[in-house]
What we know:
Blueprint: E1 2-6, H1 11-30, E2 37-42, H2 48-53, E3 57-60, H3 73-95, E4 99-102, H4 109-117, E5 122-126, H5 133-138, E6 144-147, E7 161-163, H6 177-184, E8 191-195, H7 202-216, E9 220-224, H8 230-240, E10 250-253, H9 258-267, E11 270-273, H10 277-286, E12 290-292, H11 302-311, E13 316-318, H12 326-338, H13 340-353, H14 358-374
Parallel strand pairs: 1-2, 1-4, 2-3, 4-5, 5-6, 6-7, 8-9, 8-11, 9-10, 11-12, 12-13
Amino acid sequence: MRILLTGGGTGGHFYPVLSVIRALKKIAEEEKFVEMDLLYMADSPFDLKVLGEERVKFVSVPAGKVRRYFSLLNFIDPFKTFFGVIRAVTYIFWRMPDVVFAKGGYSSFPALIAARFFKIPVIIHESDAVPGRVNLWASKFAKRVAISFAESAKYFPEEKTAFVGNPIRARVLGGNIEEARSVFGSEPVPTILFLGGSQGASKLNDAILEILPALLQEAKVIHHCGPGNFDDVSKRSSVILEKSEFKARYKLFKFMEEDVLRAAALVSDAIVSRAGAGAIFEIAAWAKPSILIPLANSAQNHQRENAYIYARTGASLVVEESNLTPHILMVEIKKILQEKDRRDSMIKAAKSFSKTDAAEKIAREIIALALEHAA
Length: 375
């Protein structure tokens, strides 16, 4: 059985694909499939090391991005896409997978074109409340459509659409609280976890640094700032906290391995995060109160839609990026930390929203389609 997976080169696309890869391998091991050959096709692998560890072959295929604003790259990227389609068609002709799983995004377009050309069954997954253009197009010929938010069902054919949630990494769930405290300390003060997403978040980082001295007087801070921002945030925080007696309460990360992220979530009392679907579904699975700050210029405004859908359950507060000031951020954090009833209500709502079996459901449907195609 050969399965081709494809999706964009950001963490928002890659981590759900990784979750499905692991679910596929688990099912294959439990049900004793003779062989399962997994391929990942994209313009960039996001994390080639992890793919290697999972024994997944990475196939590099160029793909151009369609931008809604003027850029010289808009004149170059159509040629990248053209050559990407040629590359995908040629590769798939020789390797001929039994099924294609696509997460959407411009990076999945060449593989989807090839799958349609060769009449290979396709299953797509849409993470966001407002679908991207590639998934909307692919839904017309896909055999199955999986969605994260029930609200996005209206965009897809009802007869082949299933509401399953967003695949999340099993390795960031569970854990031992005592082990987590050994990593982050057991001082009896609240802990706030700040997540900037796979690419970090400059405006969020700026607001955090502004309130950092005051916040550390009453809480520990675990701050994932993103690789691109790490040097700047590290230097600025060192200056800001140079004379602070609480600087040991601040833990800064450019990237969090899964075991570190699991421990950080375990010890946290509240989470402040961007509003990508991956972040929202992991926060819900952790059952933590949260403050979501949607990215202002996300495609189709999807982070804002994601954030408000989640907030309507009562599990989260939303602060628009245009309204994000240090004062507002501090006030909202204090509300969660100081109001136990509110915090308990948010935890209950997060648990109700959580769907931790999405990866397994999608993996089983991928296998069913592959077996049907091979028969």
